[in-house]
Amino acid sequence: MFIALLSIFIYLLLDSHSQKTLKIRVFWLWLSQIVTSPDGNNGNNPEEGGLTMSRDMLGIAVRKLVTLPNETLGSVCDLLEKLSDPQWVRALKKFLRKENPWEAPRFSVFKTIKLGNKDTESLQRAIKNAGMKISDWSRDIMSKPTFTLANSETTVELFTATVAELGFSGHTCFNNICTRIRELGYELCPAEVGPQLRLQYPDQPSNECLYIAMESITDSDGDLELFYVGHGAYGRWLSTNCGLPDFVWSPDHRFVFVRSK
To answer: How do residues 135-154 score in pLDDT, each as one tens digit?
Structure first.
């Protein structure tokens, strides 16, 4: 509401000079009526539907706006419209701290693992022999043609980040997460990373769950699945979770991805 009011006010300031004074006075009078509620609480009671700001706050902003040249007001109006997006709010705070607001976050290498050193059957057997568990759903998608292994032994650096660390303030869908990973200069994991990470991560902390950002694989029931590597009350697991593009993840879910080549 505060942003909308300021945007309207800036529009009036940008209007022709002949009508500007009258319009601003009418607008300011209107603001005075809606910001100050009849009981004198400045409209700050949410139960009354009032504004969550004080009249002083609005007055200070308006007094500063009237001193700005028209070319600056246009930019301020554009900024106010964008501030409905939490990402722009975070960027503005960084800018005010003299930080680069659009600098991509840098993630440290989480783990380096080997790919391409086992076929599917021996990989599953190695996980079991290591005292770890592999779910039927994991075995199922590992049997599909779209689950492929590296042609030769190679190493890959893995990175992890929560949904929040990727820049999302709330719940977001898997498709947005994958897009964001690529925007930051990283890439989705080969599907082989799921079982190989499980095998090569025996010291995984308890209660940790890592979801593999990968191209989802269709299982025998026709559902899209992705791997996750977890350590819970029943041991160390390789299992799967929903890989639908519109499946929603919370800010604290942690994904694994690789560096873009």
So the answer is: 999 999 999 999 999 999 99
Q: Cα separation of 152 and 131, whole Å?
A: 26
Distances (CA, A) of 22 to 9, 18, 26: 12, 9, 6
- Collapse the DSSP code of 7 into the 3-class scheme (helix H, G, I; strand E, B; otherwise coil) and give the result: helix
State the sign of the Cα–Cα–Cα–Cα dihedral 122, 120, 140, 115: positive
| DSSP code string of 168-208 | -SS-EEHHHHHHHHHHTTEEPBPTTHHHHHHHT-TTPPTT-
Q: What is the DSSP string of 51-103?
A: -SS-HHHHHHHHHHHTTS-HHHHHHHHHHHHHTTSHHHHHHHHHHHTTS-TTP
- Which secondary structure element, helix H or strand E, spans residue 155, and what is its range? strand 154-162
Q: What is the pLDDT of residues 2-43, one digit of tens each?
A: 555 555 555 555 554 445 444 454 455 445 544 444 444 444
Token digits of residue 121: 């059957």
2-14 helix and 55-65 helix, angle to the nearest 10 degrees? 30
C-beta of residue 9 within 8 angstroms of C-beta of residue 62: yes
Tokens at residue 23, please?
Answer: 């319009």
Helix (H) or strand (E) holding 127: helix 120-129
